Inverse folding.
């Protein structure tokens, strides 16, 4: 019993969430995965304990392995809350892995406080009407929160026009100084956004368009767009806008990750931010 209790505590950091009321195919696969992980945890811990006690490598018989497997299942059934707790840990780990490349990309646009302790990430497309609705609320949050870093993940998924607009925007970001103005101008102007319309905005802001054309055609811009697509796919985000609200343990490591899909009321984003600031 002590063995089960001690190992249960270790499992709180390793198991994936499982809905015990779910009996669909995905649920069954998840349960199989859980049992496999649980068995591995118990077997590893038990092996170490025996090895330390006997100062030698320990091998388990099939009967002993089955006994350990049964104990693992009993621990899960007796303490199902450990699975929900571990889900948050696993999701945070997977989200950090998915976002690591974009957060470490020097060409990823950042608004607000680059050293902010709270990170808000937006996945967006310049021709997404719902994304455009979020432009003013995001500006409000920037004005309200001195400790907020907003990471702009440009994901042009709607059209070739969106793709060309993104190339211009990322080029402006690489050149420095005008990305924020260009972004919000593009999001609030009428009509479709495309490469030409954003070049016009950049020109009006004072950007050297000849230099910009060279930068926006560079491999650096293409690489950033590719990383953004990969992050979006890894997080299973299928549309824009989508947001990630999280603590910033470091510029490339997030904590307390909350993924919010769709154009939500700004109060929902503000509430998620306040949860990080003040707790529940």
């Amino acid at each position: 019993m002590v063995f089960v209790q001690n190992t249960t505590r270790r499992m709180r950091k390793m198991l994936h969430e499982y809905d015990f009321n779910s009996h669909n195919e995905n649920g069954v696969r998840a349960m199989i995965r859980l049992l496999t992980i649980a068995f591995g945890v118990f077997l590893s811990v038990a092996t170490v304990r025996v090895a330390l006690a006997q100062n030698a490598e320990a091998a388990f018989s099939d009967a002993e392995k089955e006994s350990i497997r049964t104990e693992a299942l009993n621990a899960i059934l007796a303490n199902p809350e450990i699975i929900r707790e571990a889900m948050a840990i696993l999701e945070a780990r997977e989200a950090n892995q998915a976002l690591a490349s974009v957060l470490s990309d020097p060409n990823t646009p950042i608004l607000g406080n680059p050293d902010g302790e709270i990170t808000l990430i937006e996945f967006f497309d310049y021709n997404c009407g719902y994304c455009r609705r979020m432009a003013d609320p995001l500006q409000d949050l920037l004005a309200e929160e001195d400790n907020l870093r907003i990471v702009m993940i440009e994901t042009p998924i709607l059209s070739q026009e969106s793709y060309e607009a993104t190339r211009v925007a990322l080029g402006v970001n690489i050149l420095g100084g005008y990305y924020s103005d260009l972004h919000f101008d593009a999001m609030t102007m009428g009509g479709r956004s495309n490469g030409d319309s954003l070049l016009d905005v950049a020109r009006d802001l004072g950007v050297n368009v000849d230099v910009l054309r060279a930068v926006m055609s560079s491999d650096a811009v293409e690489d950033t767009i590719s990383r953004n697509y990969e992050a979006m796919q890894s997080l299973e985000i299928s549309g824009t806008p989508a947001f990630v609200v999280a603590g910033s343990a470091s510029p490339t490591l997030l904590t307390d990750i909350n993924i919010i899909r769709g154009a939500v009321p700004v109060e929902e984003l503000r509430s998620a931010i306040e949860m990080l600031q003040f707790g529940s």
Q: What stands out?
A: Residues 25-54 form the longest helix (30 residues). Confidence is low (pLDDT under 50) at residues 10-32, 50-57.
